[in-house]
Amino acid sequence: MLALLTEIYNYIFHKDQYFILIMGLDNAVGKVVFDGVQLNFWDLGGQKELQSLWDKYFAEAHGVIYIIDSSDQSRIEESLDAFEKALKNQTLNGVPVVIVCNKQDIKECMSVSDVKMALREIIKKLGTRDCSLFPVSALHGNNVLASISWLVKAIKKNSDYRPPS
Q: CATH top-level class for 2-157?
């Protein structure tokens, strides 16, 4: 009887579960239910000393959020190198990517067109995978939900290739 009740409970309340990599040069982790699915965020710092840990997460990832600190132009090359290295990993082939240009609330930040220009060679290598870029201010919440919403839709569209956990 308990097994039947457990099965009914799981059927009614089960939410598809997706794992999303957050990549940038700084770190955070968490879980959230969004648009009817559970999102598990793994923040993988882009620092060279942390890159050896990446492979452990790539095979499980359903999506990637690549965060650019658009207020720190001095680290853009380091950031782009880390992003390009990650995208070369075969286990991330076909996984949707949302590029977040954070700190757009800061006057001296790189513009979205500057970021696109810096990314132009990497974008050419993305192939057919879904990819979008959003200007974001995490401080004010501008475009945060829009970028997550886009990624969730892309992940769901991609679920035949990489089904939920």
A: alpha beta
